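Here is the promised in-class demo. Please do not try to memorize the tokens; focus on the logic of going from shape to residues.
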């Protein structure tokens, strides 16, 4: 029996065994509350602060600039709602038309309370241009929020350039770096950002733990109230095991970033080249080179409405991929709002298939995927009048290569 191939790391990543080992003591015996003054509490506090330093190091921040949250989504909420409320005015949020729902829905919430929202257009590769941002900055913006890398098409944004323009106008800049952290180099000082969101489960850490980088001197209002933990910005007893796992995942990602990015980019380019060679009706979404190293989004001309069938056929054959964002998977069959914003017509916007690679993927898995995919595509619309055979698969424990 063959094990399944997991090519959906933009949705979530398998927990690295080294991360699980680091978390182990805090899932059992080391149960103290980090706010307690006794030995058990001090042990937990020390573990939290060690992890805070590890997460900070991944993005070039100071440890006391890291606020732990329950998710990347909460970090996005805190960045935008916190900035607007701290301004004491209804405010003006500038963002892009292709942001994650964590940003777009937060903007919708703020708009209902009178906050002005400006959605910047993107080009055909999904990149925000400086011209639109400059126009928006003329209208007394409170905060600009542009994601570092698209979860749907993998395109990287020119964050340093956009943040520089924002700084010239004295406006806060936030980036949702959930997809980018641990995959590409990020340094908050080089990027000149004020706020940056992270999530552990996107870099082989545990689910249920995220973080917000808050540059020293930036004022936010909390959105969770209680005992005043996390510098008063995120009250609640800390998720010690999750935070420790986040720290370990960040440390591993930082140490292995360069070699892992090169390896995954090689796999990505191999898949792209084979798609062109074996499936001439295939086409790429997003920028051809300014993209995440392990991310590839593509469609098949004339077969866009069959992407759901293709996804299920690949799943039956033991391959896990996605049709865009996992957060919007229940909307399968509807045109992607991201692709519509990039200028694709509604037909093309239905047909995205996303392959996102991760730490434990192998050359053998890529080769097997490239054997399975052409047969699955040929079977669409009865193209080859054949069905993809169900393979006998087993889900094996993921271990480091």
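The designed amino acids, position by position:
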């Amino acid at each position: 029996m063959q094990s399944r191939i997991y090519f959906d790391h933009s949705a979530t990543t398998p927990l690295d065994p080294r991360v699980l080992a680091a978390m182990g003591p805090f899932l059992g015996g080391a149960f103290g509350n980090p706010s307690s003054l006794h030995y058990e509490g001090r042990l937990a506090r020390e573990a939290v602060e060690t992890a805070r330093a590890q997460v900070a190091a991944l993005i070039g921040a100071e440890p006391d600039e890291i606020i732990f949250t329950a998710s990347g989504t909460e970090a996005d909420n805190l960045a935008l709602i916190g900035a607007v409320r701290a301004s004491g005015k209804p405010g003006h949020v500038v963002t892009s038309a292709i942001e994650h729902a964590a940003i777009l829905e937060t903007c919708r919430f703020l708009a209902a309370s009178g906050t002005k929202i400006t959605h910047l257009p993107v080009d055909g590769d999904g990149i925000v241009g400086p011209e639109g941002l400059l126009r928006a900055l003329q209208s007394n913006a409170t905060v600009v929020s542009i994601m570092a890398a698209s979860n749907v098409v993998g395109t990287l944004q020119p964050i340093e350039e956009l943040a520089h323009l924002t700084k010239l106008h004295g406006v806060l800049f936030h980036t949702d770096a959930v997809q980018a952290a641990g995959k590409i180099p990020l340094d908050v000082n080089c990027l000149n950002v004020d706020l940056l969101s992270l999530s552990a489960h996107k870099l082989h850490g545990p689910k249920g733990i995220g973080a917000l980088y808050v540059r020293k001197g930036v004022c936010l209002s909390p959105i969770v109230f209680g005992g005043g933990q996390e510098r008063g910005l995120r009250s609640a007893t800390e998720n010690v095991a999750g935070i420790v796992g986040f720290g370990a995942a960040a440390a591993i990602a930082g140490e292995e970033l360069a070699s892992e990015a090169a390896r995954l980019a090689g796999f990505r380019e191999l898949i792209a080249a084979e798609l062109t060679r074996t499936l001439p009706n295939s086409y790429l979404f997003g920028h051809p080179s300014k993209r995440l190293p392990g991310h590839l989004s593509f469609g098949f001309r004339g077969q866009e409405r069959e992407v759901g069938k293709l996804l299920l056929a690949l799943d039956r054959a033991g391959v896990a991929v996605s049709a865009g964002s996992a957060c919007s998977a229940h909307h399968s069959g509807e045109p992607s709002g991201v692709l519509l914003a990039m200028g694709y017509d509604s037909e093309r916007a239905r047909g995205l298939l996303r392959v996102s690679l991760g730490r434990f993927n192998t050359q053998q898995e890529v080769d097997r995927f490239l054997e399975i995919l052409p047969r699955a595509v040929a079977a669409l619309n009865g193209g080859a009048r054949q069905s993809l055979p169900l393979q006998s698969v087993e889900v094996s424990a993921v271990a480091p290569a």
